[in-house]
Amino acid sequence: MPAATAHDSNNPDPPLGRRERRKLEVRTRIYAAARRLFSKQGIEATTVDEIAEAADVAPATFFNHFQNKQAIVALMTGEVVEHIHAMIVESLVGNGSSFERIRRFIARAAEDISASRGGARVTLVEFMRLDATPNVPHPYLDRLFEPIVALIENGQAAGEIRTDREAEFLAQMAVGMINSAVTNWLAHPDYPIEASLIEATEFAIETLRPEA
User: Fold this and answer.
1) pTM to 2 decimals?
2) Which of 25, 111, 118, 156 pairs as cysteine with 39 (C-beta 3.0–4.6 A)?
3) CA–CA separation, 200 and 179 (whole Å)
4) What angle separates helix 117-131 from helix 69-92, to the nearest 10 degrees?
């Protein structure tokens, strides 16, 4: 077992002092300003100077909190991956058949996109860029992929999902079909992503069913 840390429930953190609260407030303001600008005009078109101005801080203050613009993008991507992972686990682990749980996850994903189309699109563009980078590890993808493979393995054991292919291969194919809707949306902002996600999911489900 690891040693106790300052975050243990038995060893709560001491309250932040005025200086620490001020630093946290400024960092939070910079981060929020960056997210708004990224959503409005994209990551590449947004400069550090613009973020600093929107956060009402000097550019030098920005660099006191973040090494560069990419550090904010990495933080955003990590938060989104954690959110998607939690949503996958909550949706895929529960009552209902394997296919009902897949539909539940996709419905929640479509709701999230509808609630924040600009922000979701900017973050997914960055995620896809990282995924396309060769010769580097992809811990984000592995984290999101594992519960889907587990769902398909359980569905195979229950006789709900075909067993003529390995679970990992079936997961890759199903995710690829669903991801095609996302790819089209990233290329064409007016693409009906919510409806297309549902349609692609139903097509993927049909490919996962055992042959009659």
Assistant:
1) 0.68
2) 118
3) 8
4) 100
